[in-house]
């Protein structure tokens, strides 16, 4: 029996519910079957950074509410994730503490998992993994070899920052104003062999698919915008220019009506024909300098970006000679191509023209009319993409070892798949200077897999961005099957593509590259069942959480610690407040107002409901009174139906702030119903009290995805025979069928 008027003791309620969930294994992903939809909700993969921050709380509160909602509607739900555990932040933290990064990662992971459980996130915790585990990065190595064999990974020189004092390459975030973060000496740029991921073969398909993703209605505007931005598509025209000596260039411009106004041709330093236009010794030297001078960091600023005049010309569309220039400005706008410089209509071209003597261009006078140009024949409609291949290797110790052996006679030789994983020494202590991997003979010295002669292992590691290319896959494979079947397990066909990715607005780059690699794996074979090559059927990006209008930072002293909030108010209040305070597309400017609002609502609902549950038996049944208030009960039911319809719709669209607003409104209406009946008849009849409790129970059911602990407890305390059975079920949802493949419910 329910205890009359118990206090709302969030800590006690939440601890009790957590225990029950863990004991019953409520959130274990069921074996996916045929009998109902299989829904994989993919949250972002956190870095093992030390603590959950409010951005995580926002991310997982949205994802968890959605996962619980889909479960409550009868779907088979997989809600799982792994830690993105390799990379520089963990390595730097380990250097600072002088402990192996593996140890640091484990400490952080355990702490973060504890925080997640405390917040009631319904992950399948048995499926959690770390990208730095051998069993996991073995598959990063497999992916590397697979893409290498398919020609989608290649080695080329790249420019990297190098510190002579520390004898190490630096990541760009380790370079501050051209100086080393550690020793503050000036860094210089060096060229060194680097591994690249080839993404160009799939750019066009990524582009095409964006329309379909948008049409599905499951990708929000922010996530679509990031995909378009990263792609950097420019529509325009191209035409062939001929030099007369057999040399030809295909040039692009987005200005289709101004082609006749061209006054130069601009080549990317990475254009395949650039050497043909650099015959002159001095030009070649200038180009080499341009390359080693860091053009990869190409400023988009046309007034500062380097430019080399080749001294050569090519006849333009009207026959006049156009100077041929080389500048990474092209890359930053249209990718590694050739473009027509038309300063009369293009501001960046005008800025560049002003810096090159040979280009004749007079900027128009103030107020002068825009020029018009004669049409040019033979233009072909076309497009260019700014997105391009990117480097995937780093000269750092805390990362997936690249499965390659460098042999003096054979060159770089891939490690045979049977010899995977190439194990990263667990006891390795990274240092700020040098690469500790390179200093370990037990790691470096091996026999060449091809000729058997002594050779050296590659000591570069894979950037954690590479591990992330498939971090959305492992949760869909039962842990015990991952060693053998990471990319071939039959469950993958049921869970993939993920129904919804929920991630921060800065995840666009990861998602873009995951979309590329899914297409590659479709063509190679393992993901042939995903015809579209899209890993996520739906995607919700949310903005970040700030405080006092500014980004949270230790430096500003405005960091909000979720642990303290949970301690003070309970997890349900924190979740509800984070969801209610702003829609996902808006930046959440944290304030205690939302917290107090959420807490007041939960306390109010708790006390009000328990009072009504306890008072039910005291209401006498009087047929005459019941008949007199029947229209009021009808109206209450209508309120419930309408409210529920809106809440269902908004939750399905992951607009949780609207759902919660409607939940609070429904509560007001339920209170209103009682006031009206009392005003008319002086008291509630038994029929009225029952109708009111039915409404409160419906409210608790619909509240469950957002504030699961208190909602469940309310259902159990409702005293209704079916109260406990309603736990985990959306209002109106029949009992969830338990198929043969389901795990047996704990008794
Ligand atoms: Zn240094
Ligand atoms: Zn060899």
Helix/strand-derived category reads alpha+beta
For the record, give the distance between the C-alpha atoms at the N and C termini, rounded to a whole number: 20 Å
What profile does the largest beta sheet have? Answer: 4 strands, parallel
The radius of gyration computed from the alpha-carbon positions, rounded to a whole number of angstroms, is 31 Å
Helix content: 25-40%
- What general outline do the C-alpha atoms trace? globular
Bound ligands, each once: zinc ion
Instruction: Count every helix, treating DSSP H or I runs of 4 or more residues as helices.
Output: 23
The unreliable regions are 295-300, 737-747
Number of strands: 29
Spatial arrangement of strands, main beta sheet = 2-1-25-26
- Provide the residue-averaged pLDDT: 91
**Strand percentage:** 15-25%
Secondary structure topology:
Elements: H1 10-24, E1 38-43, H2 54-72, E2 76-79, E3 82-83, H3 88-97, H4 101-118, E4 129-130, H5 134-149, E5 153-163, E6 168-170, E7 175-176, E8 179-180, E9 188-197, H6 203-216, H7 221-231, E10 233-242, E11 248-253, E12 264-267, H8 281-292, E13 308-315, E14 321-326, H9 329-334, E15 338-341, H10 347-353, E16 380-385, E17 390-391, E18 393-394, E19 400-401, E20 404-407, E21 411-414, H11 441-444, E22 445-447, E23 454-457, E24 461-462, H12 464-467, H13 482-485, H14 491-495, E25 500-504, H15 508-524, E26 539-542, E27 545-547, E28 550-551, H16 562-569, H17 571-581, E29 588-590, H18 592-615, H19 623-628, H20 630-652, H21 656-681, H22 686-703, H23 708-717
Parallel strand pairs: 1-2, 1-25, 3-4, 12-14, 25-26, 27-29
Antiparallel strand pairs: 5-6, 5-9, 7-8, 9-17, 10-11, 10-16, 12-15, 13-14, 18-24, 19-24, 20-21, 20-23, 22-23, 27-28
Helix pairs in contact: 1-23, 2-17, 3-4, 6-7, 7-15, 16-17, 17-18, 17-21, 18-22, 20-21, 20-22, 21-22, 22-23
């Amino acid at each position: 029996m329910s205890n009359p008027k118990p206090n709302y003791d969030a800590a006690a309620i939440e601890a009790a519910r957590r225990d029950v969930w863990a004991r019953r294994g409520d959130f274990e992903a069921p074996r996916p079957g045929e009998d109902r939809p299989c829904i994989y909700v993919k949250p972002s993969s956190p870095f093992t950074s030390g603590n959950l921050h409010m951005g995580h709380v926002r991310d997982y509160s949205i994802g968890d509410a959605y996962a619980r909602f889909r479960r409550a509607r009868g779907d088979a739900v997989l809600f799982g994730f792994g830690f993105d555990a390799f990379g520089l932040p963990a390595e730097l933290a380990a250097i600072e503490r002088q402990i192996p990064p593996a140890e640091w990662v484990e400490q952080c992971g355990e702490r973060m998992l504890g925080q997640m459980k405390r917040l009631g996130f319904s992950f399948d915790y048995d499926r959690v993994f770390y990208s730095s585990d051998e069993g996991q990065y073995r598959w990063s190595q497999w992916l590397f070899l697979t893409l290498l064999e398919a020609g989608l990974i290649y080695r080329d020189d790249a420019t990297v920052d190098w510190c002579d004092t520390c004898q190490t390459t630096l990541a760009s975030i380790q370079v501050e104003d051209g100086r080393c973060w550690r020793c503050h000496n000036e860094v210089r740029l060096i060229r060194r062999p680097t591994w690249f991921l080839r993404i160009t073969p799939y750019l066009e398909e990524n582009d095409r698919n964006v329309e379909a993703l948008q049409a599905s209605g499951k990708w929000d505007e922010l996530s679509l915008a990031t995909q378009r931005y990263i792609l950097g598509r420019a529509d325009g025209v191209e035409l062939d220019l001929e030099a007369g000596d057999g040399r030809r260039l295909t040039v692009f411009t987005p200005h289709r009506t101004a082609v006749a106004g061209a006054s130069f041709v601009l080549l990317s330093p990475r254009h395949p024909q650039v050497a043909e236009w650099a015959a002159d010794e001095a030009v070649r030297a200038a180009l080499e300098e341009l390359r080693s001078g860091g053009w990869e960091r190409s400023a988009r600023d046309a007034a500062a970006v380097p430019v080399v005049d080749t001294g050569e010309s090519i006849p333009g569309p009207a026959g006049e000679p156009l100077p041929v220039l080389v500048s990474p400005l092209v890359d930053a706008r249209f990718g590694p191509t050739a473009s027509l410089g038309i300063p009369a209509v293009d501001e960046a071209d005008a800025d560049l023209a002003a810096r090159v003597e040979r280009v004749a261009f007079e900027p128009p006078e103030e107020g002068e009319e825009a020029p018009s140009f004669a049409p040019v024949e033979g233009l072909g409609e076309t497009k260019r993409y700014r997105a391009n291949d990117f480097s995937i290797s780093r000269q750092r110790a805390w990362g997936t070892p690249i499965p390659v052996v460098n042999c003096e006679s054979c060159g770089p030789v891939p490690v045979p798949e049977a010899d995977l994983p190439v194990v990263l020494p667990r006891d390795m202590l990274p240092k700020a200077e040098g690469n500790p991997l390179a200093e370990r003979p037990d790691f470096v010295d091996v026999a060449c897999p091809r000729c058997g002669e002594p050779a050296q292992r590659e000591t570069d590691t894979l950037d954690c961005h590479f591990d992330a290319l498939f971090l959305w896959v492992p949760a869909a494979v039962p842990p015990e099957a991952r060693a053998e079947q990471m990319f071939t397990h039959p469950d993958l066909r049921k869970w993939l593509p993920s129904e919804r990715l929920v991630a921060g607005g800065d995840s666009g780059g990861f998602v873009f590259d995951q979309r590329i690699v899914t297409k590659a794996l479709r063509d190679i074979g393992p993901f042939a069942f995903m015809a579209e090559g899209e890993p996520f059927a739906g995607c919700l990006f949310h903005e970040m959480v700030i405080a006092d209008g500014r980004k949270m930072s230790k430096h500003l002293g405005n960091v909000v610690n979720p642990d303290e909030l949970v301690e003070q108010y309970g997890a349900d209040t924190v979740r509800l407040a984070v969801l209610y305070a702003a829609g996902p597309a808006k930046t959440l400017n944290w304030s205690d107002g939302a917290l107090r609002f959420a807490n007041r609502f939960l306390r109010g609902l708790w006390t009000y409901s328990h009072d009504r549950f306890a008072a039910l038996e005291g209401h006498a049944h009087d047929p005459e009174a019941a008949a007199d208030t029947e229209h009021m009960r009808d109206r209450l039911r209508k309120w419930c139906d309408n409210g529920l319809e809106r809440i269902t719709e908004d939750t399905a669209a992951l607009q949780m702030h609207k759902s919660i607003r409607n939940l609070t409104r429904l509560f007001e209406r339920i209170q209103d119903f009682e006031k009206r009946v009392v005003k008319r008849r002086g008291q509630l009849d038994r029929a009225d009290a029952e109708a009111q409790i039915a409404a409160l129970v419906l409210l608790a059911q619909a509240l469950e995805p957002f504030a699961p602990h208190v909602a469940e407890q309310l259902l159990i305390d409702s005293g209704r025979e079916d109260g406990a059975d309603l736990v985990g079920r959306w209002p109106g949802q029949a009992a969830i069928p338990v198929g043969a493949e389901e795990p047996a419910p704990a008794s």
